Amino acid sequence: MSPVERRLSAAAVVAIWGIFNAALIAILIGFTAVRSGPGLDIVLYAASAALVFAVAVAVWLTRRRDHQPLARGLRLSSRPAAALLLAVGVALIWLGLPFGAWLPMVAVVPLVAALVMEIAARRSSSRLSIPNRTSTPQPQPRESRPTSKRSW
Amino acid sequence: MTARTTPVPYASPADEERDGWPQWLLSTDHKRIGLLTIGTALILFFFNGGIALTMRAQLAQPGQDILSPQSYLQFMTMHGTGMIAVTITPLALGLGVYLVPLQIGAPRIAAPRATLLGYWLYVAGAIMLIWGFLTPEGASTGWWGYTPLSNSIYTQGPGQSLWAAGFFLAGAGMVLQGGTTLWTILRLRAPGVTLMRIPVFAWAQLVTCLMVFAAFPALLAAMVLVSVGRIDPHLFTSNAWNIGYENLFWFYGHPVVYVMFFPFVGCVAEALATFSGRRFFGYQGTVLSLLAFAAGSMAVWGHHLFASGQEINDYFSLTSILLTIPAGVEYFGFLGTLFGGRLRYTTSMLFALAFIPQFLVGGLTGILVGNPTIDYHVNNSYFVLGHFHYTLMAGSVFGFFAGFYLWFPKATGLMLRERLGRLHFVLMVIGVNIAFIPFFILGYDGMPRWMATYPAGAGFTTLSLISSIGAGIIGLSMMIFAYNLWISARLKVPAPADPWQGQTLEWVTSSPPPRYNFDLAHPVPRVRSYAPLLDLRENARKSG
């Protein structure tokens, strides 16, 4: 692995992209120096660049905490219907805009159902069995409760 | 092929998913979510294409009344919003959801349920957009929905509200899909797959997803503003609000063009390298140019406001024209890859080759409209339509088909009919150029967009008719494409794991890939470059 490859971590790439944007913001500020007060364009662009740096920090922090997430095995993704119910709930909230406030109230039902499913999914999370094919010691799956029905 | 000891987990065959439709619709397998996203977007491509054909029928001759002026505006709004928000953007990001984990040796996508949620939000958004279009007072304010025109005083009825809701939901869905793809590239690469060893397509997805993350929240905020304006129409009485909305919208509205472009640059790069039998030329330069291009394209939104007189035109003109530098580096990479290669003219390669000059037309005319003096002249004319239809239709859609014909065998395990593919290609090249070249001349001669008809003596009739004929040919080419899909699904010619002598990791696994992408029969090989399978073939050749 070349030194460039070693230094070019995921967090570094995102940060570099943020720096590119920050440089363009600096030039924009230079162009707008004659204007009084910070314009919306600068605020908007700066907020967006801040989001990028937040991603870089998040990547850096998670990498420190968990160097190789794949090595822990595959977590079973259970109760995916929660995603559909959540989407239905959010859509019903938005439908309140043209059709009145009663629809967001109806949205409570799928949203609560999605929440219940999500909690249940987190409680029953389990991992796939991994056939031992490598010489590298594989981490054992965490203690998990068997689920009666696996859904993906 | 030497398998490497790797901690990538392989699932047993017992972990394969079942094939019923509930398992498909609620699957957290990134491949199924990706295929659902691409499939839904393709259906909507036909729908929005049908809308475009209706508009071209209306404009083929002056004074026609296939559509009333109000209906024409509604069709225009649906075509623009539909193509951008629920067709080409999902095609671009859906390809990433499907391919990125395969290309980086990952067994899954990050946060698969969030990716699934993204798909369902996108579907909900598409339904609401179409629902709004079908109401008697559908949205008719253009795909940008400028205020105060989009508030409840000037645009009454539920159509505009459904438009705002649909745009918001589809945008939120794409943020989720883009976010999970981004996190997958950043955190779930297989051991040995450094960022400088991922394929150009994965890099294109990385910068695309960064742009989604940085720019799409502005769309969500803009749609909330439109919605508030529908509840309280007196909000937008100050012009500061209106200019603020324009800034918010275009802060999304310009980067989304690149979101609809970079993934297809990646498709073209992969197709050119595969069918030239060569490594992609200038990989590091292309990667750097993609990063610079993506950053630069975040800084050009103000050129959409040139004519408003409310923006720093010098800056936005400078940044717009500067984009030619990274674009030039990418083109250099394309041409360098072709140079000296053993070219195979498959359908995928033909689409990739046609992308190069056609997108160049879109890009070069972009430099023209990035210049305020020219922009003032052609603003809101057919010239601008010509520019972005060359960018999106002659560019991005051709890039998509290059990728579609390349990866269809991998995704389905079936081969498409090459002859039909070539017919599709030929008709599409003819149709696109006949349809969109007249736009430049019409626009330069002063034909305004958003007009449901034009006077017979205005000098627009012949070129409008030619353009409509071109649109019809595009429609015919899409029928050929649909027939190709249908007949290939019926004939079921099986695809091998690597039908094209591919270079990247997805070609090492079976067609279609197993649930967790790689298994004991198809392990992730040692990755030493961005073309690991080419490395293996070269090593095998050297060792005899």
Structural description of this entry:
- The complex is a heterodimer of chains A (152) and B (544).
- Chain A is mainly α.
- Chain A has helices spanning 3-7, 10-31, 40-65, 81-99, 102-106, 108-123.
- Chain B is mainly α and 544 residues long.
- Chain B has 18 helices and no strands.
- Chain B has helices at residues 21-25, 30-59, 69-103, 112-134, 158-187, 200-231, 239-253, 255-259, 262-276, 283-298, 313-322, 324-338, 347-369, 372-378, 382-412, 418-444, 461-491, 532-542.
- Chain B is globular and about 70 Å long.
- Classes of the chains: A mainly alpha (152), B mainly alpha (544).
- The interface between A and B is large, with 67 and 82 residues.
Write the layout of secondary structure elements.
The complex is a heterodimer of chains A (about 150) and B (about 550).
Chain A: H1 3-7, H2 10-31, H3 40-65, H4 81-99, H5 102-106, H6 108-123
Helix pairs in contact in A: 2-3, 4-6
Chain B: H1 21-25, H2 30-59, H3 69-103, H4 112-134, H5 158-187, H6 200-231, H7 239-253, H8 255-259, H9 262-276, H10 283-298, H11 313-322, H12 324-338, H13 347-369, H14 372-378, H15 382-412, H16 418-444, H17 461-491, H18 532-542
Helix pairs in contact in B: 2-3, 2-4, 2-17, 3-4, 3-5, 3-6, 4-5, 5-6, 6-7, 6-9, 6-10, 9-12, 9-13, 9-15, 10-12, 13-15, 13-16, 15-16, 16-17
